[in-house]
Amino acid sequence: LQTGALRTTDEILDAFAAVGATPILEGATR
After folding, report:
1. CA 10, CA 27: separation in Å to the nearest integer?
2. Cα–Cα distance, 20 to 12 (Å, whole number)
3. The pTM is what?
């Protein structure tokens, strides 16, 4: 993976967290 790709994923996760979808993601990974 390229650093840019990881950076983008981090930004996407930050966006989800800002919307408050983190609990949903945690539930989906379980």
Report:
1. 19
2. 12
3. 0.41
